[in-house]
Specification:
Blueprint: H1 4-9, E1 17-20, E2 24-28, E3 36-42, H2 58-73, E4 80-83, H3 87-90, E5 99-103
Antiparallel strand pairs: 1-2, 2-3, 3-5, 4-5
This protein binds adenosine monophosphate (AMP) and zinc ion (ZN).
């Protein structure tokens, strides 16, 4: 399967790893939008949040377990935000379920924090 993040998981494409366990891989986003911007992904290919099912949803819990571990290990003390973009309106560019972990800056929240696309 021609999936960028599957290739990152199997080492075909290099990445800056920040965390790995049996179920989950996390690495630095190549184009960070915050001082800390990691991507946390399940090792099993799921194309997006719209493909989460009763059979695979335990992997999402593993992603959030990993996020809490990463936040502790990296001393992210002031908080963090986790985002998953799903589908075209949300601007999903890589069709392998991934969660952006953003931190290191005071973030806004409200309608203005959702950028309207052109
Ligand atoms: P999304 O737009 O939500 O699908 O997020 C995809 C993210 O993957 C973007 O933030 C990209 O900067 C990031 N990205 C794309 N290619 C790579 C790569 N080779 N290594 C790390 N991050 C990447
Ligand atoms: Zn994949």
């Amino acid at each position: 399967m021609d999936c960028l993040f599957c290739k990152i998981i199997n080492g075909e494409i290099p990445s800056a790893k920040v965390y790995e366990d049996e179920y989950v891989y996390a690495f630095k986003d190549i184009a960070p939008i915050a001082p800390i911007h990691y991507l946390i992904i399940p090792k099993t290919h799921i194309s997006g949040a719209n493909e989460i099912t009763e059979e695979n949803s335990a992997l999402v819990a593993k992603v959030f377990e990993a996020a809490a571990k990463i936040a502790k290990a990296e001393n992210i003390e002031n908080g963090f935000r986790i985002i998953t973009n799903c589908g075209d309106d949300a601007g999903q560019t890589v069709k392998h379920l991934h969660f952006h972990l953003l931190a290191g800056v005071k973030m806004g929240w409200g309608p203005e924090s959702v950028n309207a696309a052109e």
